[in-house]
């Protein structure tokens, strides 16, 4: 006989429920269980709490929930099941689990029969609804607080977990850069079409979109263009011949006349397009700096933009580092691979990459009888464009291999340096020259030994600078703290009469600087002033004298009474 148990993961702890034995087989059908879920009485007749393992602390609960979310069997859950689940005996134990990944881990480690769908899903739904009623001593309010606290901790840990050194900023930047390229191109075409009614000859003279918008803003009405504007035209076009051609074309233009209000709108729109172009340049500089911080080797090897696109397409730098070279090679060419298979998966990409490497017919070419693509996003690299047609596939495979090495170094190195990226780029250059001239490239072992030696020196230098910087910060902080304490003590002791008058008038006196206090302590009319500390002691003694006298008077009075 098979006895079904269901494990339930709650914020308060692990719970193991036993489904009660029934004679009728229909009682275990999902439809029957679904009908009894909403009623606590009926549902308690179906399941019974077998064991409960509460979490000792919030940190333990967070560790367990992180393991469950990743499909990993935690030591607490393993011990709990080994202790309370009847594995041996005549009755075979069947364990119901909500997560299929966790079920696979349990089946592998504990050698259990696992069930995830069917009646188990309905039973877990009922347990989730009536959990506080099924576990003695647990109230609905306490269960809700535990869930809320664990939810906040889990979300906070996920947000803080950032091994990739803010590669999400790179993903957003490259996405915005691509969007800006599309928008600027669309808006520039609109300016060309709009201003072309008035000055159609300018379109043939100036091909660059940003320059055209700047000229449209500068020229305005072509009839007002004169020799005085020639210098301004040269500044924008950076070409005196082109500036003169614009001036000549404006005098014999076939364009229509345009009203001032239309010109104002065209100039305003041109100004917006120019500002977008300027912002795009700033964004590209920002992307270059971020790539230098997050993935310097990948940027040095394949370029900032292509490297950022690879990271964005993979989802993160860690995901890119986990991919094999065959996947990186065709990353971005999923449409060609899966034209007839729908949405691609990582396994499918890897299978197709292996098929492409072995010369088989690709999955997307099942009907077209074509080969799989040789490259994806790395096609935008300069190396593939420089290679001959027959060597493009070979150099793309070699470049993907080097990109994988660079991404793994960037992801898992403590101190980011571009030494390995420069060396890998040199290797790709040597391989290109080998394909063209036949000169044998250097061995990978020799190049990597040089790179490791240089990277060690660079990393040591960076660490030394960081330590020096930290020491300077600490020294500066100590000096400021000591200065603040010294100024505070001296100001409390020495308060001129003017300060008291200022306080009475509602004005707060300002603290004196250390130099001013030192100057006041210097001799006045040849007589040395008393140091601040000595003054404080004298003041204290002066203030203490009346109290001592009062005590002496009281002692004398007591003596007289005794006498």
UniProtKB/TrEMBL annotation:
CC terms in the record's Gene Ontology section: box C/D methylation guide snoRNP complex; small-subunit processome
Recorded family membership: Belongs to the NOP5/NOP56 family.
Ranges for region Disordered: 486-563
Lineage: Eukaryota, Metazoa, Chordata, Craniata, Vertebrata
Cell compartments where the protein resides: Nucleus, Nucleolus
Keywords assigned by UniProt, alphabetized: Nucleus, Ribosome biogenesis
Protein name: Nucleolar protein 56
Biased composition (Polar residues): 497-506
Principal localisation: nucleus
Subunit comment: Part of a large pre-ribosomal ribonucleoprotein (RNP) complex, that consists of at least 62 ribosomal proteins, 45 nonribosomal proteins and both pre-rRNA and mature rRNA species. Within this complex directly interacts with TCOF1 in an RNA-independent manner. Core component of box C/D small nucleolar ribonucleoprotein (snoRNP) particles; the core proteins SNU13, NOP56, NOP58 and FBL or FBLL1 assemble stepwise onto the snoRNA. Interacts with NOP1 and NOP58. Interacts with NUFIP1, RUVBL1 and RUVBL2; RUVBL1:RUVBL2 seem to bridge the association of NOP56 with NUFIP1.
SMART domains registered for this protein in UniProt: NOSIC
């Amino acid at each position: 006989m098979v006895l079904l148990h269901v494990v339930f993961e709650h914020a308060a702890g692990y719970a193991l429920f036993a489904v009660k034995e029934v004679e009728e087989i229909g009682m275990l059908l999902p439809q029957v269980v679904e009908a009894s879920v909403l009623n606590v009485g009926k549902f308690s007749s179906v399941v019974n709490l077998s064991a409960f393992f509460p979490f000792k602390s919030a940190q333990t609960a967070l560790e367990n929930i992180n393991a469950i979310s990743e499909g990993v069997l935690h030591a607490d859950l393993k011990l709990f099941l080994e202790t309370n689940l009847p594995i041996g005996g005549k009755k075979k134990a069947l364990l119901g689990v909500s997560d299929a990944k966790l079920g696979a881990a349990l089946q592998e480690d504990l050698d259990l029969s696992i069930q995830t769908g069917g009646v188990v899903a309905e039973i877990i739904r009922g347990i989730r609804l009536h959990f506080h009623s099924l576990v003695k001593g647990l109230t609905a309010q306490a269960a809700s607080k535990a869930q809320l606290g664990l939810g906040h901790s889990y979300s906070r840990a996920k947000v803080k977990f950032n091994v990739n050194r803010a590669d999400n900023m790179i993903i957003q930047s490259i996405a915005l850069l691509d969007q800006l390229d599309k928008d600027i191109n669309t808006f520039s075409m609109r300016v060309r079409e709009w201003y072309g009614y008035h000055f159609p000859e300018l379109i043939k003279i100036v091909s660059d979109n940003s320059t055209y918008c700047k000229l449209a803003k500068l020229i305005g009405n072509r009839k007002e263009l004169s020799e005085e504007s020639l210098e301004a035209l040269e500044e924008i076009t950076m070409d005196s011949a082109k500036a003169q051609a614009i001036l000549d074309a404006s005098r014999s233009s076939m364009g229509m006349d345009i009203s001032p209000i239309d010109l104002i709108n065209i100039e305003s729109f041109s100004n917006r397009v120019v500002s977008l172009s300027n912002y795009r340049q700033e964004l590209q500089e920002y992307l270059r700096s971020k790539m230098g911080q997050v993935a310097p080797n990948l940027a040095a090897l394949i370029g900032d933009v292509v490297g950022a696109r690879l990271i964005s397409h993979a989802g993160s730098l860690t995901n890119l580092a986990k991919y094999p070279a065959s996947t990186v090679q065709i990353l971005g060419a999923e449409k060609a691979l899966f034209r007839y298979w729908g949405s691609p998966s990582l396994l499918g990409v890897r299978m197709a990459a292996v098929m492409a490497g072995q010369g088989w017919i690709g999955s997307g070419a099942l009907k077209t009888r074509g080969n799989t693509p040789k490259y994806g996003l790395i096609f935008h690299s300069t190396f593939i464009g420089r290679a001959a047609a027959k060597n493009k596939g070979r150099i793309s495979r070699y470049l993907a291999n080097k990109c994988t090495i660079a991404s793994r170094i960037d992801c898992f190195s403590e101190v980011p340096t571009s030494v390995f990226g420069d060396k890998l780029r040199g290797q790709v250059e040597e391989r290109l020259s080998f394909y063209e001239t036949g000169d044998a490239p250097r061995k990978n072992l020799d190049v990597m030994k040089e790179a490791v030696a240089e990277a060690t020196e660079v990393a040591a230098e960076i660490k030394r600078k960081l330590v020096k910087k930290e020491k300077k910060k600490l020294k500066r902080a100590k000096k400021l703290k000591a200065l603040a304490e010294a100024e505070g003590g001296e100001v409390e002791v020495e308060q001129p009469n003017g300060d008291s008058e200022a306080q009475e008038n509602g004005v707060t006196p300002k603290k004196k600087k250390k130099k001013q206090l030192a100057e006041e302590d210097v001799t006045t009319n040849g007589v040395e002033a008393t140091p601040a500390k000595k003054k404080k002691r004298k003041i204290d003694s002066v203030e203490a004298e009346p109290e001592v006298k009062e005590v002496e008077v009281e002692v004398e009075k007591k003596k007289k009474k005794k006498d």
